[in-house]
Write a structure and sequence with these properties.
202 residues, 7 strands
């Protein structure tokens, strides 16, 4: 689903940039895995995360996608690297061939995608990854909106509440697709709503 106007604004703030840098550092042990390779970003938002992927992972190219044309416009303004291209794309129906990318990044886009499309999106990520390719996923889940802070977020922003996966449901679905987990981390409960990070491999 498309973001509400508040969410569109928040993904292009200094705080969001700080969060993305912090989240990306969780992947430090994988920084050399995508040097000179092809990367896809699903749900690139403002493109701030795209810039960090290029900085830390140093791929040959990044294809950054988002369903929202407003965000793609913002992302283009935030990035002027010719190795980065942008496209308005539905994550549940990616227009790329099988085995096209060595890495796929998702920074908090999946919980905006209601069931069953979040499952279709993960299946598409698996499809476009090359053998032994990695997906880097940083996400919230239904549990994130059950906390005190999460309840406040629910009142002021629009998400597909009731159609968001629970964390274990997401993990089970990834394993069912054939992914194996290389890394997993849950955000501290003091930072609400809680997010979790994982790296899975095809």
């Amino acid at each position: 689903m498309l973001m509400d106007q508040l969410s569109v604004w928040t993904v292009n703030t200094p705080f969001r940039k700080w969060m993305l840098e912090r989240w990306t550092q969780d992947y430090v042990q994988f920084f050399d895995d995508l040097v000179g390779k092809d990367v896809l970003e699903v749900g690139c938002g403002s493109g701030l995360g795209t810039k960090l992927i290029m900085k830390h992972f140093r791929p040959t190219k990044i294809v950054a996608t988002d369903l929202d044309p407003r965000l793609i416009s913002v992302a283009k303004k935030n990035n002027n690297n010719p190795a980065i291209s942008f496209a308005v794309t539905n994550a549940a129906d990616l227009p790329y061939r099988n085995d096209s990318f060595d890495g796929v990044f998702v920074y908090g886009a999946l919980h905006h995608i209601p069931f069953p499309d979040w499952q279709k999106s993960l299946a598409e990520i698996y499809r476009v990854l090359r053998p032994e390719g990695k997906a880097f996923i940083r996400e919230a889940s239904a549990e994130s909106f059950e906390t005190r802070w999460g309840q406040i977020v629910k009142r002021i922003s629009s998400h597909p509440y009731g159609k968001i996966y629970r964390r274990q449901e997401l993990l089970d679905y990834l394993r069912g697709l054939g992914f194996k987990t290389l890394y997993e981390k849950e955000e501290s409960k003091t930072f609400q709503p809680t997010y979790f990070a994982m790296v899975v491999q095809k």
